[in-house]
Amino acid sequence: MNLSGAYLDFHQEILTFIPEKRIFTDPLHTIAYGTDASFYRLVPKIVIWVQSADEVSRILKLSSKLSLPVVFRAAGTSLSGQAITDSILLVTSRDWKGIRVNDDVSSVTLEPSVVGADANIYLLPYGKKIGPDPASIGSAMIGGIAANNASGMCCGTTDNSYKTLQAMKIIFHDGTELDTASTQSVEAFKQSHADLIKRIDALAKRIKDDQALHDKIVRKFKIKNTCGYGLNSLVDFDEPIDIISHLMIGSEGTLGFIKEITFKTVPEYKDKASALMIFKNVKDACDAITIMRTQCRTRMENAELDAAEMMDRAALKSVEEIEGMPAFLKTLSPTATAVLVESRAPSNEILDANIAVILEKIKHIEPEMPLHFTKDVYEYTKYWKIRKGLFTAVGAARKSGTTCIIEDVAYPIESLADGTLELQELFKKYGYDEAIIFGHALDGNLHFVFNQAFDDPSEIKRYERFMDEVAQQVATKYQGSLKAEHGTGRNMAPFVELEWGSDAYELMKEIKQIFDPKGLINPGVIINADPKIHLKNFKSMPITDPVIDKCIECGFCEPVCPSNFLTLTPRQRIVANRHMKTLENQNDTKGFEAFKAQYQYDGVETCATCSLCSLSCPVGIDTGALTKKIRYQQITPSQDKLATMIANNYGTILGVGSFVLSAVKGVNAIIPNSVMNAMSAGVSALSGNKLPRWKASLPGGHTFKDSRKLFGAAEKVVYFSSCLNRTMGNPKPKSGESELDDLVIGILEKAGFEVIFPESLKPLCCGMPFSSKGYKTQGKQKSSELEAALTKASENGKYPILCDMSSCTKTMMEYFSSGLKVYDPIEFIHDILMDRLPIKQINEPIVIHAICSTRKMGLVEKFENIARRCSTKVTLPTEVTCCGFAGDRGFNYPELNHSALRHLKSSIPRDTKLAFSTGKPCEIGLSEESGLDYRSIFYLLERCMH
User: Fold this and answer.
1) Boundary residue ending a domain (606, 634, 662)
2) Domain check: are 343 and 404 in the same one?
3) Which of 152, 256, 626, 748 is the most exposed place for a label (fewest CB within 10 A)?
């Protein structure tokens, strides 16, 4: 900590009401937590995780007293620099995420840290969703979605935050809270803030008396517009409280803090169809869109058309080589332009009628390919994959060290074709040869993506001139929006007056002054006197490591990371590694070593290396692979030698491990859990966390035994029981319960299979216990030994091979070089066993956990199918991703497991007694945190066979 003056006073004061563990002043956390998805960076002096309105209120009062700027941040997926600061950053806690629906589900009330996708998952059983649908909805939080008026492909200008807002709780600069749904709160606010109310009322009257200004505002909000403040609130509403709440939408945290918001819900129809329309050129595509916009009903409950996404030829070309893309993309003409159309309806009959209307309206425009709507989920998902992969494709193809920039503008619909063609010419003029155009064309909203370096003054000058021309073209020539949905931020602040004119701009400055008289809430955003602010404070993007160099720091990975509430997220780990590379490049040895030392626990030790981040990442970056690489680099010669010795004597080591586990279990039968836990914690601490912590769910030892009874059957299966299952029994074993290997063999034989074991089974291992710690050589050694044994046992793949643990199966898929097919438990049960066994569905509620490997292998749906075939009541907790146990890491760092599963218990219905998964280490951690006894999915199968 290096604070002084008012910041030191502020820090000392907040320690009296906020725990120190939620306050950060060190370089690692201020840089990591201070990063958003924009291409700007400011490093905050203090970062605070806030998780209550009282904390926010007290902080705002204190910061106002000390005249210190404060910025609010939710998920940090913002793209225009509106969530960064070099002062005090308030980050909403990931646990500030309550959800409530009203009786008829016509509205939903959300706290600021609810992820948009989670709100929709909550509403899905009711056939509803929230209106806003930004591309970042899987990671963006409600506070940021509302504060930026974020929208997307389907919500347009009719279902966005502004239009679906019903009520809001706001905390103002002086710490006062207003609940717009409470008559008592409103009346109290009108008394305490009479001057604010009076001035807002005066602004509204001023606009109503200025017909030209009034008409300008109405015209500019007919298309998407998030440039500047939402002046439409002063036109659309008469009551000052309504104006205030709607001004908060799109204010980007510059007017106050959104504590809670109530949205009107919108229908989520199951019947839908899409068409990838290919037109000969941009003009034809835009003409079709204009007709659909003006002659088809859009985005209402009886809508005929919900989305129309335009993609220019460069955009289509950027994805045509990606696996799974339609082959015809490569055959399109140089000017071909696509329009991806979607229609949704409450019934299939209405959907057919919608399609007929759309095709009839545009039948006079000759397409390059025949127009065709599809209701096939696989087919239209492939089409939408094209659209969603565009930003990814350009970002992944960029030169390392450059930044991928996505801008968004909106044209009046009648100018869409001309505006698009002129943008393409500007790309050529300034040498942005890789640039693409796509977007929500139904609203005249276009995104354009290009790659830019900021490490060269000439490159910055090129960017400046390009953006100046774009601003003149969009705002002046076509009277469009310079920001349609990404927010003004710092990026477009210098151009707000250009777009709106001095009369409207002065109005915006007055709004800022009314709400924030000291100018302390997110200063410099939306309103900024510096005409060059968009050319300052660029992020450093040094070439760091091939594993992460393509990262665009969007933050899409963060919700799935098991350490996101404990230490760092994947994005933050990448930011930290880039900063270390910058320090290294600057020859700052002292700073580098200090930063690296702090990163060890937060970045290396508490990374579960589950790699779920790669599934959420637009460019597929696996930060877990980076951590494994770092662990490999940290291995000393003596550690490497020890690992080799263990690998060479693995069978003996496992035998000793089984004996020790049984001994510990025996001791635990005498010594109470509380004493065992205290003793274990003490010993682990003394060892510097090198010795594992004991857990109540720790299994006893187990020795694998050959229990086969069926021989000579025509059908055979090779069964490989993982080394952990051969060594460990079940957590919290039950009387009379079979061990897993006995159970699996029995089930296989009931299905008519003769079971074959690979020879010399005792020392065999997939290699994961070594590779996950960075011991690549030893991991590959064990994997090769196993591959040879399974090849022989299966007679070169003649017989199916079953492994009883998902993580081991995934490791074999990655390591095996012969193409040998190994079945995961889920895949084998679903594809082979279910139809060969007498399954009877039970009425007992069950909970299942899809471990990381299951998710990465794409087997979650099959897991659910098995569970629902076996039980009438199945729960798959949506808030739980990786369990955080990470092999054996949960023994050394139980806080990772606890943090990852902090919502597990509350996500399981109270009457649930049965819990299932497909990985022994995960089952230990899940049992520990849930209070249930997790078992392999094979135990569910056994229960349903009786």
Assistant:
1) 634
2) yes
3) 152
